[in-house]
Input
Amino acid sequence: MKVKISLLKIFALLILPGAIRAQTSIEFGVLLGASTYYGDLNGQQLSASHIYPSAAIIGRYNINERWAVKGFIGYGRISGADSISTSSRDKLRNLSFISDIFEVSAQFELNLIKNKLGYNSTNRVIPYLFTGLAIFNFNPRTTYKGREYELQPLGTEGQGTTEYNDREKYALTQISIPLGIGLKKRFGKHLTFGIEAGLRYTFTNYLDDIGGKFANNNVVRRASGEVAGALADRSAEVNPLGFPTFAEGRSRSKKWMPLNDIYILGGITITYRFVPQGMKCPKF
Output
């Protein structure tokens, strides 16, 4: 009997600290911040009018003092417009969009300073880096003559037509790679406050519905209607002569680097660490 009790004590000493630590390493909370994007419609400058509130629910599991995994369910809005550009070519192109972004991601955090996980540990401010994998949904829209239109179904660059059978309509649900940096500090046993900013590198150039070349406007109109033709080339709205300016084959996307579009989410984080109440080591 004494042998059995001794073995039980050894088992408890080995297992219980890990179990308690696992429970005290789980955090849930929120991110409240802002969102924007980098693409064809704001590549030259960032305007405050194209920064929007964003929010997310986050869950973090601290694997050890250096590494943590984080689940992220977030929302943001992005937009852009040629009207704010300083380029005369952009102003003549006259395109614009707005889109809501919904993201679900799994992220790894690397603490650059050890994050002490004990109940009574006093932490300095912890800088960290993060990356991971995200699935996101977007749907670019624009306003024309007082009415809002979804752009992807219209095939504004000739997508989905027999004349441009090499141009497929882009998917509205895609993958991105989060890359970012943050700071966090725990106050007491439960609360951690922080701030982080992360860009999401996507695998599409069509967050803003712009990614290739101008199509023949007549082809777009025949395939998707008059509105599609008008939104494929909106230069007629600002051209003093009142007709479209850009010929078939001219570049609609103007990026100087072969980068896909990027959206950005960041803000203040508040998480609550779950500490088991009244948990004590068993007596033998």
In short: The CA atoms of residues 39 and 53 lie 19 Å apart. The first helix runs from residue 2 to 24. The domain at 2-273 is CATH 2.40.160.20 (Porin).
